[in-house]
Write a structure and sequence with these properties.
By secondary structure, the chain is of the alpha/beta class. It contains 7 helices and 15 strands. It has one domain: Metallo-beta-lactamase, Chain A (4-Layer Sandwich), CATH 3.60.15.10. The strands form 3 sheets. The protein has a 7-stranded mixed β-sheet. Strands 7-8-11-12-13-14 form a 6-stranded mixed β-sheet. Strands 9-10 form a two-stranded antiparallel ribbon. A hairpin with a 4-residue loop joins strand 7 (98-100) and strand 8 (105-110).
Length: 229
């Protein structure tokens, strides 16, 4: 299994059968190193969304339509893409359930954040989510945009997380010290990667500071590029 952190909150999980994309934000992302055309040349199995905010869903419509891949999200967000964007190939889920997609499993759990989207005709709202991907005997955790919450401790109590992606960009999510608490005291993953930072001014953070504060525990932290687990 190869996992690529593309920047911001965009994570790609490469399985033997194809790629799972979490929160694809490519177009207008100033820190991205891959363009949409290059991404569409890959075999994409599914797009998984944590919540609607534009810096997490920006390229979802085009990827799902051109790659004819599955959209996986909460029920209300799935309905938005069905009704407003005419995306038919989708699997609506909700908090607490784990679904087997024949080769990988997805579980959504509740994050501490906000979400809504509206146009002149409709209003959609739902709770944001964390994502747990189980594939090839590994458990990958993506925290989406979340504040620190004691619910994270349940991951340590009930799951063994091989790799965790945690936001450190403050203002809209956890900041570095909160993410350190989440990693060291609550989740205790085997490896951890900071995300959601330095894409724009209001999420400016130093990932090396996060690395230094968790280094004593794991001696291994990645904050850019690809990881093989």
């Amino acid at each position: 299994m190869k996992i690529i952190y593309h920047s911001h909150s965009f994570v790609e999980i490469e399985l033997e059968s194809g790629s799972i994309l979490i929160d694809p934000y490519i177009t207008w992302n100033p820190t991205i190193k891959i363009n949409l055309e290059e991404m569409l040349n890959k075999k994409i199995l599914s797009v998984v969304l944590t919540h609607w905010h534009s810096d997490h869903v920006w390229d979802t419509e085009e990827i799902c339509k051109k790659a004819n891949c599955l959209l996986i999200s909460t029920f209300e967000l799935s309905n938005y893409f069905w009704v407003e964007k005419w995306i038919q190939n989708r699997h609506p889920m909700h908090i607490g359930w784990e679904f087997d997609f024949w080769g990988y499993k997805i579980k959504l759990t509740s994050a501490t954040h906000g979400w809504w989207v509206w146009n002149l005709k409709s209003w959609y709202t739902t709770i944001p989510a964390w994502v747990i991907v189980r594939a090839e005997w590994k458990n990958i955790y993506h925290a989406g945009d979340t504040g620190l919450t004691y619910d994270m401790k349940l991951l340590w109590d009930y799951d063994s997380i091989d790799l965790a992606f945690l936001p450190i960009g403050w203002n809209f999510t956890m900041w570095i010290d909160d993410a350190v608490i989440a990693a060291k005291d609550f989740i205790k993953p085997k490896k951890v990667v900071p995300i959601h930072y330095n894409t724009f001014l209001m999420v400016k953070a130093n990932p090396k500071e996060f690395v230094e504060k968790v280094w004593e525990v794991w001696k291994f932290v990645e904050f850019w590029g690809s990881i093989v687990i």
